[in-house]
Structure formats: structure tokens, C-alpha cells
Amino acid sequence: LQERLAKLAGGVAVIRVGGATEVEVKEKKDRVDDALNATRAAVEEGIVAGGGTALLRAANALAIKGSNPDQEAGINIVRRALQAPARQIATNAGEEAAIIVGKVLENNADTFGYNTATGQFGDLIALGIVDPVKVVRSA
């Protein structure tokens, strides 16, 4: 349905990309291509809170227990892998990942997360910090 609506309402757009050097133009063109692909993915499957928040919540919701130590180790590996994007984003922003992740998980709202651009916590969907579900699912 979303695809049909997009085709009916959509049209053709021309995006002009310019820059001072050929390298700059290529970089900007790559960014536009990435943005277009992310937008298409969002139209196809929807969006979730960005910044690794959706995966962080998924890790927190993973409340299964293994029946032996090997299964427990596997479950813990999956939990840590789901937490890794949010932790890395916080670290890249110069923040202490454990503190940021802890504060995000203290709040029960699914869309609550950390905005690295402003250094503040809030509703990431309202702030426009989103990830396409298709990208999160296939990552």
C-alpha cells in the first residue's frame, strides 16, 4: 500500500549536487545516495528510534535463559552484540558508554534515547533521530 501511494503521489525529482572539488562533489553525491536509500527503506518498512536505541531495547527485552552454560554464553553474546551500536555511538561522541546506556534503559519509553549532537536525552522519534526498520533488521 505504501509503495502504491508513493507511486501515485510521487514524481521525478532532480537533485543537483555541487562542490568546490571533484572529491567534494563525489562525497556529497554518496551522501545523497545514502539518504535516498534510507528514505526508500523507511517508506517500505517504517522507522524506529535511532542511535542504536531500538537494538538496545531489544537486548534488554531478551529475557530467556539457556538450559546449559553454552546456551547462556550464546545468549550473552547476542545481548552484547545488540548493545554494541549504542555503546559505540556514545563512545564516538566522547561520552561514557555505560552511563549513557544505563540512563537510556532507566527510562521505559521505547523511543527515549541519547542525542549525541546536543548531549541531551529525549524522544528520538520527535527529535528526528530515526533508523529505517529495514536497515536495523538487516544489519
TrEMBL record:
Show the SUPFAM superfamilies listed in the entry. GroEL equatorial domain-like
Query: What superkingdom does the record give?
Result: Bacteria
Q: Which residues form a coiled coil?
A: none
PROSITE patterns, per database record: CHAPERONINS_CPN60 (PS00296)
What is the gene called?
A: groEL
**GO process terms (BP):** protein refolding
Q: Which organism is it from?
A: Bartonella quintana
High-level lineage: Bacteria, Pseudomonadati, Pseudomonadota, Alphaproteobacteria, Hyphomicrobiales
Q: Which GO molecular function, any one, fits this protein according to its record?
A: isomerase activity
Q: This protein is called what?
A: Heat shock protein 60 chaperone
Write out the entry's keywords from A to Z.
ATP-binding, Chaperone, Cytoplasm, Isomerase, Nucleotide-binding, Stress response
Q: Which family does it belong to?
A: Belongs to the chaperonin (HSP60) family.
